[in-house]
Amino acid sequence: MRVFVTGASGFIGSAVVTELLSHGHAVVGLARSDESAATIAAAGAEVQRGDLNDPSTLRAAAEGADGVIHLAFIHDFTDVEAFGRSIATDGTAVETLVDALAGTNKPLVLTSGVLGLSVAAGAELATEHDEPLPGGMASHRSGSATVKAAAERGVRASVVRLSPSVHGEGDVHGFVPTLVHLARTTGTSGYVGDGATVWPGVHRSDAAALYRLVLESAPAGSVLHGVGEPGVPTREIAELLGEQLDLPVASIDPADAGEHFGWFAMPLTSGVPVSNAATRALLGWEPTGPTLRDDLASGGLHGRAGRVSADAPVARRHGARADPRAPTPRPTRSAHHAGPTSLGA
């Protein structure tokens, strides 16, 4: 299969490209920059220059492919307006890809996240059948309604909801590296309240395998969960990081979470336990990579982590109150990087 991949040079996208090539598929990767183009070419894939703001290129590349995997997203969390523009750009890109594939029954694999999913009354885990809470983090990107509408237009569309932590060696911009940066800068490995809120996780290699399986065989309208473990308590994450970084671990009062963590307080408090049972049953997917706990305990996630806005102050440093005018550190990705933050991504 000839597969067009957006975000092909990113942390997740590059793993997906390798997975596809190793299983006999040909890959065309979207590249916005010379650096991205070099990364894609070095992996053995064909380069398509362009970006998410170039609908004619997206349409032509999709029409020339046997299937599409859409991973790219403009990770700009500068403010609410910037994030809104990113969502709008992504929505336009998805519409373009659907239009290009309409009536072909070709596969289109979209990306969303599990943060902010609702949990059915009486249930312990959010499932593939549950929807995001209105206004929640997972509600902003393509979901079940999008893929069902695309399916009605003759596209074998599906969506992978990724864990908030897609982890593995080499991640320097994701959620865990952001926590590392905050801990190193403030001198405390913190969590909010009692730290009972959980983060589902999935290893990068397992996520890549899932995208391939979805591309190859998921029925139209499918919603899949890229979740390797249902949830690790944020207190446990903070404790593991504190041990590895040799820093004290502390609870941050929920009233102070916004000041201490900035925008990152939201993902820290939006997680729920998530099931992958329906995804495994449908596709035969079995996560085999290291767990988030394994990667945290090994120290492999913070050796190069925390390279996020090195010049940006953090809300507190060793308990000192912050200048409220100071910006909060945030992931600094290339504009169309497909990465593991999964803010509904």
Short description:
The protein is 36% helix and 17% strand.
What does this structure look like?
The chain is an alpha/beta fold and 345 residues long. Helix content is 36%, strand content 17%. The protein contains 12 helices and 12 strands. A 7-stranded parallel β-sheet has the order 3-2-1-4-5-6-10, with helices on both faces. It has a 3-stranded mixed β-sheet with strand order 7-9-11. Helix 1 (11-22) links the parallel strand 1 (2-6) and strand 2 (26-31). Helix 3 (55-63) packs parallel to helix 4 and helix 8 (234-245) runs parallel beside helix 12 (292-298). The protein is globular, with a radius of gyration of 19 Å. The two termini are 25 Å apart. Residues 304-345 have low confidence and may be disordered.
List the helices and strands and how they pair.
Layout: E1 2-6, H1 11-22, E2 26-31, H2 34-43, E3 46-49, H3 55-63, E4 67-70, H4 80-101, E5 107-113, H5 144-152, E6 156-162, E7 165-167, H6 175-186, E8 189-192, E9 198-203, H7 204-217, E10 222-226, E11 229-233, H8 234-245, E12 249-252, H9 257-261, H10 265-268, H11 277-283, H12 292-298
Parallel strand pairs: 1-2, 1-4, 2-3, 4-5, 5-6, 6-10, 7-9, 8-12
Antiparallel strand pairs: 9-11
Q: How would you sum up the global shape?
A: globular
What is the number of E strands?
A: 12
Tally of DSSP helical segments: 12
Which residue ranges are poorly predicted, with pLDDT under 50 across at least 5 consecutive positions?
Answer: 304-345
> How big a fraction of the residues is strand?
15-25%
What structural class do you assign from the helix and strand content? Answer: alpha/beta
Largest sheet: 7 strands, parallel
CA distance, first residue to last residue? 25 Å
Radius of gyration, Cα only, in angstroms? Answer: 19 Å
Order of helices and strands: EHEHEHEHEHEEHEEHEEHEHHHH
